[in-house]
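Regression check, magnesium ion case 253:
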Amino acid sequence: MSMKIPFLKNKQSKESFHFSEDNIPNHIAIIMDGNGRWALKRGMPRFAGHKEGLSTVVKIVKAAVECKVKVLTLYTFSTENWKRPKPERDFILRLPKEFLHVYLPELMSNNVRIEVIGDIENLPDHTREAVQYAINKTRDNDGLQLNMALNYGSRLEILDAMKEMLKDIKDEKLSLDELDEQRFSGYLYTAGMPEPDLLIRTGGEKRLSNFLLWQLAYTEFWFTDVLWPDFSEEDFFHALQEYLQRKRRYGGI
Ligand code: IPE
Ligand code: IPE
Ligand code: MG
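Current build output:
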């Protein structure tokens, strides 16, 4: 079945976006980068860019709902972002609560289920409580799964998974013979989720910054210089369209 994206109909863009439900990516992961530069370019403090970036989050979540993506993972705060000055960190870590306070009813009505991947235990209480509330509130929704990667670092995730796995081996809940890629994946924060089909990074940098190192093994990458606060639905659909033209071979021919 072919879909046309309804809210693009009246836009100036001449291009039309046709997707088929069969080939729309199940899982899109986004490194939302460029907030600080967006603000500095305008002579504003960096936090103004983080604030503006929230409206892009809202737009892109809605776009993902429209085209029936199953999982959208947003890199929100990395384990390395603790290196930033405390006022900036504090500001970023207040945004999930602010976002959920305003948009949770809309997310509910769009049948969105919130999840968090990352070291949630070591988040400030107000951040953890806000996301925990949203996770509980949306747990029965079966539309888009919105994964917030919060205090997320892929190496930490893999190490933690390894520790859990070794504990299970020691407790004889798992034998070395049974251990394979699928079982190991089950120890990651992303257990049970499809691997990302498409990774988008805004802001011009071409690196992973410790994001989903295991899960991105066969993901298609799409980079843009557009800074996250300027990233539009059209940009998102361009990424999707380009993804649809890629030939995924997984090592075959
Ligand atoms: C991404 O924007 C948001 C977070 C890392 C939380 P940045 O804050 O990294 O913006 P730039 O890359 O410095 O422009
Ligand atoms: C990656 O962006 C983390 C998030 C978007 C949350 P960074 O801006 O922190 O990454 P580097 O420092 O450019 O690698
Ligand atoms: Mg950055």
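Comparison notes: Strands lie at 2-4, 18-20, 27-31, 71-78, 113-117, 145-152, 198-201, 220-223. The pocket of IPE (ligand 2) is lined by residues 31-33, 75-78, 81, 205, 207, 209 (CB under 6 Å). No diff flagged against the previous build.
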